[in-house]
Design goal:
With 69 residues, the chain is mostly beta strands. It has one domain. It is 7% helix and 42% strand. It is built from one helix and four strands; from the N terminus they run αββββ. Strands 1-2-3-4 form a four-stranded antiparallel beta sheet. A hairpin with an 8-residue loop joins β2 and β3.
Length: 69
């Protein structure tokens, strides 16, 4: 049985920003890495790079992934 990391599972998913300023600037996640410098209770922080829409422009964002109980 193959095991997957959270980074592997994030790549290829669609990112939808929640802020109004970036509302329509989401896209496909192309890279993800865990951030050790942020501590969130019950979550892990990941830095992601995503391609905006169908353009070649790429942006960075930080997301939180809930840990299993």
């Amino acid at each position: 049985m193959k095991t997957y990391s959270i980074e592997d599972l994030l790549v290829g998913q669609t990112y939808h920003p929640r802020s109004l300023a970036r509302r329509f600037q989401g896209g496909e996640i192309t890279y993800a890495t865990k951030r050790e410098n942020l501590w969130l209770d019950g979550y892990e922080a990941y830095s992601i790079r995503y391609r905006v829409g169908q353009s070649i422009k790429q942006n960075w964002a930080t997301i939180a992934v809930r840990l299993p109980d």
